[in-house]
Design a protein that fits this description.
A four-stranded antiparallel sheet has the order 1-2-3-4, with helices on one face. It has a domain of 104 residues: Roll (Nuclear Transport Factor 2, Chain: A). It is α+β, with helices and mostly antiparallel strands and 164 residues long. 38% of the residues lie in helices and 26% in strands.
């Protein structure tokens, strides 16, 4: 009889331990993609409306330490290109970072040519800081190597032969 009670007690303890371990495991993190897409769209809508001073609040805290609101607004509001609309094409998130793909429709006025709208694909990087998503601008110059003879962009293999 004593062994029977010990077996039941052991089984009960194992079930309780399993339940406790499953409760302690980290909760499954839901995809924050919808929130990031909404913030990216809001930021672009401010830029389209020439309200870059409001779009400034969507910049990462670290980036905001490098530029004032006034300077950012002046740079973004005074561009030759006129942004018309933005459309989210998707996202990919990992932990507290997301990449958002967008299509931005714009018009570039050029002398002697009727302005035509163009759609440009963009990739934006966002980070989560204190439960809020912020845009991290990438100001690095991205050079595409050119083969000297053809004047065309080089292939990936050629890029290693012609350092930038």
């Amino acid at each position: 009889m004593m062994i029977n009670k010990q077996v039941y007690f052991l089984r009960a303890c194992m079930l309780l331990a399993a339940a406790a371990l499953s409760a302690c495991s980290a909760p499954v993190k839901k995809d924050d993609g919808a929130a990031v897409e909404a913030r990216a769209t809001e930021r672009w809508n401010y830029l389209i409306a020439h309200q870059a001073e409001k779009a400034y609040d969507y910049l990462s805290p670290g980036y905001r330490q490098t530029i004032t609101r006034e300077k950012y607004a002046t740079q973004r509001n005074d561009v030759a290109m006129r942004w018309k609309s933005v459309q989210v094409a998707g996202h990919a998130c990992e932990a507290d970072t997301c990449t958002v793909n967008l299509w931005v429709e714009s018009i570039v006025p050029m002398q002697g040519i009727a302005p035509q709208p163009i759609k440009t694909p963009l990739e934006e990087h966002w980070i989560k800081v204190d439960r809020t998503w912020y845009y991290v601008p990438d100001n690095r110059l991205k050079a595409t190597p050119v083969t000297p003879a053809e004047g065309q962009p080089a292939s990936v293999e050629d890029a290693s032969k012609h350092p930038v």
